[in-house]
Amino acid sequence: MSNSAIRVHNLYRYFGQLKAVNGISFEIPHGSVCGFVGANGAGKTTTMRILASLDYPTMGLAEICGINVVHHPDQVRRLIGWMPDHFGNYEHMTVLEYLDFYARAFGYSGVERRQRVQEVMEFTDLIPLAERFSNKLSKGMTQRLCLGRALLHDPQVLIMDEPAAGLDPKARVELKHLIRVLAQEGKTIFISSHILSELGEMCDSLLFINNGRIVHHGDAESLKQGTDAAGGMLYDVQITGDPGRLSEWCSVNPYAEFLESRKLGGRIRIDSGDPEKAAEVLARMIRDGLRVTEFHKEQRNLEDAFIDMLGRLDRGETARPESTPPPAPTFAPH
Ligand code: ATP
Questions:
Q1: Does position 332 have pLDDT exceeding 90, yes or no?
Q2: CA 269 to ligand 1 center in whole angstroms
Q3: Is the model more confident about 131 or about 330?
Q4: Domain co-membership, 131 together with 268
């Protein structure tokens, strides 16, 4: 039995010859928010659908709160709220009727059902829209309805596939706020998105998938502060006096490369991410008479970090050890 809310081990999903998910393993602890990032076709939806018990893996293990999604889909569905990237709607059904219909399907009845629907509508700010037809809502309203539906049975784990896709900035902020509140309530949230900067703000960890393989799992900060493709790290340095002295100093020092002037100094690149190397460069600057007032790592944005990582992979450098490929997979019954 695992202590993680989500556990995936050596998971494969082949569509004919296509290896949509190709031996991935990861765990997401209870109460954390994990962003799932990857290019179009990387395998995000396939992984999420398996976790939501909507598809079978070709091989491997997927568990929600220690429960195997293939063996016990009914138990898993009680634990998860699933927000797909596209969802069907019904004509001539109001928002209230829609949520009431699903609350009934989840087994709620009488006063409890009315209360549950009311709570969810309050949380997702759908009360003013209660009598609107559910297929006549804007994209942002539709996403709130979809989230409301996913929350009706108060699930421990939320799996959200691209919930922010197509939303305008205001609707994205609203959705982000709702996700933050749900995280504060202790729910585990697994969310895919192409908007990396937003994921970085709200996620405890980021899981990068590329061609069906996990290429990174870590927190956003470590990615932003990570080394560039050649193993170097960027620093912003400010000095008193003539800023040109910084470039002169770099030109005669082997580890530091001067990249660009700034008002009080410039950007430099140190050829290693080792903090000892940075400390040595700083000590040498001071020893050589530079009056340093600022010396700090420059943060990359997450998009750059992601592109950088894909570049490393193209060059054959693996960012993270992969699990050992297994023998030919046996196909699960569909
Ligand atoms: P996107 O960001 O575009 O939604 P994704 O990361 O969610 O992409 P998936 O939808 O998981 O990617 O698709 C992974 C690969 O599997 C793609 O090449 C896709 O075409 C393929 N695929 C997904 N579902 C099926 C299916 N039912 N039959 C055949 N191929 C499929």
A1: no
A2: 39
A3: 131
A4: no
Q: What is the pLDDT of residues 90-149, one digit of tens each?
A: 778 999 999 999 999 999 999 999 999 999 999 999 999 999 999 889 888 998 999 999
Q: Is the distance from CB of 301 to CB of 234 less than 8 angstroms?
A: no
Domain assignment present for 144: yes
- Same domain? For 256 and 164 the reply is no
- My answer on whether 272 and 171 are in the same domain is no
43 lines ligand 1 (CB under 6 A): yes
Where does a domain end: 224, 252, 273?
224
- Three-state DSSP at 84 gives coil
Report the distance separating Cα 165 and Cα 45, nearest Å.
13
Domain count, the chain: 2
Using CA atoms, how far residue 89 sits from 92, 167, 197, in Å, is 10, 18, 30
CB 330 within 8 A of CB 17: no
Structure tokens at 99: 């949520």
Q: Do residues 187 and 292 both lie within one domain?
A: no
Same domain, 156 and 139: yes
Which H or E element spans position 10?
strand 4-15
CB 69 less than 6 A from any atom of ligand 1: no
What contacts 110, CB < 8 A, 6 or more positions away?
none
Give the separation between CA 169 and CA 140, rounded to whole angstroms: 10
Backbone angles phi, psi at 205, to 5 degrees: -145, 160
Per-residue confidence band for 233, with pLDDT thresholds at 50, 70 and 90: confident
Sign, Cα dihedral of 326, 328, 330, 334? positive
- In sequence order, what E strands does 148-231 have? 157-161, 188-192, 205-210, 213-218
Helix (H) or strand (E) holding 149: helix 139-151
Residue of the nearest CA to atom 10 in ligand 1?
Answer: 45
14 and 132, same domain (yes or no)? yes
The pTM score is 0.80
Per the structure, the complete domain to which residue 265 belongs is given by 233-297
Does ligand 1 lie within 6 Å of residue 212's CB atom? no
- Per DSSP, the three-state class of 233 is strand
